[in-house]
């Protein structure tokens, strides 16, 4: 099992972190909310392919395909 985390960054505001964004692994029930620095940590997942989903302001949704390795890893999502 591997812990997954990362940072949600704004593409339109000089890469500033985005606090308060809901993030989840699609279809698993594993979810988190970004902290003040835009960082999130999701529960442990078995190795495999997943879709990381972020719900952004103005009802926008951003998805990113990820591969969970055999060790802990971080994924950044620039939105």
**Nearest-integer average pLDDT:** 86
Oligomeric form: single chain
Distance between the termini: 28 Å
Q: Helix count, per DSSP? A: 0
Please indicate the percent range of residues in DSSP E strands (runs of 2 or more). Answer: over 45%
Low-confidence segments, given as residue ranges, are none
- Order of strands across the biggest sheet? 3-2-5-6
Structural class: mainly beta
| Helix proportion range | under 10%
Order of helices and strands: EEEEEEE
Rg measurement, Å: 12 Å
- According to DSSP, the number of beta strands is 7
Please characterize this protein's 3D structure.
- This protein has about 80 residues and is mostly beta strands.
- Helices cover about 0% and strands about 60% of the residues.
- It contains no helices and seven strands.
- The protein has strands at about 1-10, 20-25, 30-35, 40-45, 50-55, 60-70, 75-79.
- The strands form two sheets. The protein has a four-stranded antiparallel β-sheet, with no helix packed on it. A three-stranded mixed β-sheet has the order 4-1-7, with no helix packed on it.
Write a brief structural summary.
The chain contains no helices and 7 strands.
């Amino acid at each position: 099992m591997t812990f997954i985390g990362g940072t949600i960054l704004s593409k339109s505001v000089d890469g500033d972190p985005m606090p308060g964004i809901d993030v989840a692994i699609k279809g698993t029930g594993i979810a988190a909310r970004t902290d003040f620095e835009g960082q999130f940590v999701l529960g442990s997942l078995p190795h495999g392919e997943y879709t990381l989903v972020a719900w952004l302001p103005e009802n926008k949704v951003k998805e990113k395909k990820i591969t969970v390795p055999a060790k802990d890893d971080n994924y950044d999502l620039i939105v």
